[in-house]
Amino acid sequence: MKPAPSRRAAPLSPAALVEALHGIIDDAKAEDIVTLDLAGKTSIADAMVVASGRSDRHVGAIAERIMSALKEMGQPAPRVEGMPVCDWVLIDAGDVIVHLFRPEVRGFYNLEKLWGMGRPQEGAPAEEAQKPGPARKVVAKTAGDAEDAPKSRRAPARKPAIRTTPRRNAAPR
Predict the structure, then answer these.
(1) Distance of CA 65 to the CA centre of its chain
(2) Cα(60)–Cα(137) distance, rounded to whole angstroms?
(3) In the chain, what are the domains?
(4) Element containing residue 89 per DSSP (H, E)
(5) 3-state DSSP call for residue 91?
(6) How many CB atoms lie within 10 A of CB 2?
(7) Which in 41, 130, 143, 168 has the greatest CB count within 10 A?
(8) What are the backbone angles phi and psi of residue 130, rounded to the nearest 5°?
C-alpha cells in the first residue's frame, strides 16, 4: 500500500507570516525585534523583521528555530545566508525577510534606518523631492572649516614619519 502524498499547507499571507515569525523570534529570547513594512517600497518582500541575538550561537539557534518552524507550518523552504559565521543571518521566507544580528553588527549596518526612511509623497513636485533634507544640512554644517570646530575635538597634528632604515627593495640613491 502506498503512503498518501503529503499535502503542503497553503502559504500564509505576509501579515500572518510576520505574526508567526514574530512569535517564534520572541520565544527564542531575541532582543529588539522590529518589523518594517516594505509594501510599496520594494518588490523583493512585503515585510522585514530585524532582531538581535546576544551572541553568534544565539543568532544561529534563533535561525535554526525559525527554519524548523517554517517547515512545520508547511511553508516553502527558506533561503538562508550567513549561518557559518552567525554575525548576520538572513532568512528569505518569501514575502518576509528576517535579519538576525549580533548587537554590534546590527548597530554597524543599521537596517532600520535604511529601510524605515520615508518615501517622497506621490504627486509632490520634483523640486521638493530633490531638496536636501535636514540631515544633509547638518552634514554640510559639520563638514565646514576646521576653525569652526572646538579645539577639544580637533585631531592632533601629526608629524610626517621619517624613515631611518633604508627600504629593502629601494634603488640606491
Answers:
(1) 20
(2) 41
(3) 14-117 (3.30.460.10)
(4) strand 88-92
(5) strand
(6) 4
(7) 41
(8) -85, -15
pLDDT at residue 74 is higher than 60: yes
110-164 pLDDT tens trace:
888 887 654 444 444 544 444 444 443 333 333 444 444 445 555 555 655 565 6
Residue 30: closest CA among 6, 8, 61, 51: 51
Q: Residue 7: what residue type?
A: R
3-state secondary structure 24-51: HHHHCCCEEEEEEECCCCCCCCCEEEEE
**Residue that is written with C-alpha cell 572649516 in the block:** 145
CA 113 – CA 65 distance, rounded (Å): 27
Residues 6+ apart with CB under 8 A from 83: 60, 63, 89
Band of residue 5 on the pLDDT scale cut at 50, 70, 90: low
pLDDT at 158: 60
Measured between alpha carbons, how far is 56 from 38 in angstroms, rounded to an integer? 27
- Average pLDDT score over the chain: 75
Question: Is residue 111 a contact partner of residue 47, using CB atoms and an 8 Å limit?
Answer: no
